[in-house]
Amino acid sequence: MKETQQAKEFIAKRAAKEIKEGTIVNLGIGIPTLVADFIPNDKEIFLHTENGLLGVGPTPLKEEVDSEIINAGKLPVTAKIGSSYFSSSESFGMIRGGHVDTVVLGALQISENGDLANWAVPGKDVLGVGGAMDLVVGAKEVIITTQHCSNDGKPKIVKRCDFPLTAKNVVSTIISEYAVFRFFEKEMVLVEMAEDWTVEQLKKITPAQFSVSPTLEVYQVD
């Protein structure tokens, strides 16, 4: 089993391989933020943040930090040459208008039919849903990056979500440290699996029902 930070970076590296050339991509808070650091320099991607920047670059070095250039999670980011700045209202106009191709988000739970819960834990204080509801409905593709189980060992990929839903039937792909699942017409399919795991082992930590792709591949990151 990978250490937490190692697992997060492994997931982010795998997610970076999903990002298609020439697309506009919004990266959520947590593991998704790391994805920016693993996108190849020669791959033209336009990273978007809902607080008003298109053209986000990788995490800045200590001497590059500019307190006025941050993402929606208030973390410092870099801005690529040619990037553009705009208001939050214009940013959400892009999101709601279907102009964001892909969103990469974290999750508290994902159900076997693609429902997503990623904004509130019952009984705990929350600030609000943020932009997640708009992002998952407005984007053409929703990639979830998450560790397979929570810190207390509970599975995150479940039959039904019992946390408050962000949206129903929106997830396209799930990437954990052990597997990659894709949804095809609301059916969850295992397409990649860690080389030192078996399907039986994976099922023990995955209550959700899933089928196995006939072309199941070994899950590796370059």
Lay out the secondary structure.
Elements: H1 4-16, E1 24-27, H2 31-35, E2 46-49, E3 53-56, E4 79-85, H3 88-96, E5 102-105, E6 109-111, E7 116-117, H4 132-138, E8 141-145, E9 157-158, E10 173-175, E11 179-184, E12 187-194, H5 199-204, E13 211-219
Parallel strand pairs: 1-2, 1-5, 5-8, 6-9, 8-10, 12-13
Antiparallel strand pairs: 2-3, 3-4, 6-7, 10-11, 11-12
Pfam families: CoA_trans (PF01144)
Protein name: 3-oxoacid CoA-transferase B subunit
InterPro entries: 3-oxoacid_CoA-transf_B, CoA_trans_fam_I, NagB/RpiA_transferase-like
Rg value: 17 Å
* CATH fold description: Glutaconate Coenzyme A-transferase
Number of strands: 13
> Any guess at the CATH architecture?
3-Layer(aba) Sandwich
Approximate shape: globular
Task: Please give the largest β-sheet.
Answer: 10 strands, mixed
Low-confidence stretches: none
Helix content: 10-25%
CATH class equals Alpha Beta
SSE succession:
HEHEEEHEEEHEEEEEHE
| Sequence of strands across the biggest β-sheet | 4-3-2-1-5-8-10-11-12-13
CATH homologous superfamily caption: Glutaconate Coenzyme A-transferase
Structural class: alpha/beta
Tally of distinct domains = 1
Number of helices: 5
The span between the termini is: 19 Å
InterPro entries: 3-oxoacid_CoA-transf_B, CoA_trans_fam_I, NagB/RpiA_transferase-like
Pfam families: CoA_trans
Family: Belongs to the 3-oxoacid CoA-transferase subunit B family.
Keywords: Transferase
Would you write up a description of this structure?
Belongs to the 3-oxoacid CoA-transferase subunit B family. This is 3-oxoacid CoA-transferase B subunit. It comes from Rossellomorea pakistanensis. Keywords: Transferase. The chain is α/β, with parallel strands linked by helices. It has one domain (4-219): Glutaconate Coenzyme A-transferase. It is built from 5 helices and 13 strands. It has helices at 4-16, 31-35, 88-96, 132-138, 199-204; strands at 24-27, 46-49, 53-56, 79-85, 102-105, 109-111, 116-117, 141-145, 157-158, 173-175, 179-184, 187-194, 211-219. The radius of gyration is 17 Å and the shape is globular. The model has no long low-confidence stretch (mean pLDDT 93).
